[in-house]
Amino acid sequence: MRLSGQADGGTPTRPWRHWELKESVASAGATLLARAREAEVVRPDLAAADLVPLMCGIAHAVSVHGGSPADRVDTAHRYLAALLEGLRTTPPSAGATRPTPSG
């Protein structure tokens, strides 16, 4: 039985395509992260290698919790906004310290 996307021998017809796309996304992400870092608008502890796993996490969460195809678009936008903007309702003020767990 031949599966979609596989040659007669059971080997994917273009196994390199997945890696090519991943490398393209990683490269674009690294470029954007470098620009954001230069503009001082991104947290300094974020590494370029973190970007693809974060995006994959959103894609997986949407596939599990996204609902209908139309709902998935809205869910993806909401999850991405939360990732990019953080969970705070307003950004922290400059020089503010983080609260300690005890208050």
Tell me about this structure.
This protein is mostly helical and 103 residues long. It contains three helices and no strands. α1 crosses α2 (48-65) and α2 packs antiparallel against α3 (69-85). The longest helix is centred in the N-terminal third of the chain and has 23 residues, at 16-38. The model is unreliable at 1-7 and 98-103 (pLDDT under 50).
Task: Chart the SSEs and their pairings.
Layout: H1 16-38, H2 48-65, H3 69-85
Helix pairs in contact: 1-2, 2-3
As residue ranges, the low-confidence spans are 1-7, 98-103
Radius of gyration, in angstroms, nearest whole number: 19 Å
SSE string, helices as H and strands as E: HHH
Q: Mind describing the biggest β-sheet? A: none
Percentage of residues in helical conformation: 55-70%
Helix tally equals 3
Distance between the termini: 62 Å
Given the C-alpha coordinates, what overall shape results?
flat
Taking all residues together, what is the mean pLDDT? 77
Class from helix and strand fractions: mainly alpha
Strand content: under 5%
Overview features:
mainly alpha, 3 helices, 0% strand, disordered N terminus, disordered C terminus
TL;DR of this structure?
This protein starts with 15 loop residues before the first helix and ends in an 18-residue tail after the last helix.
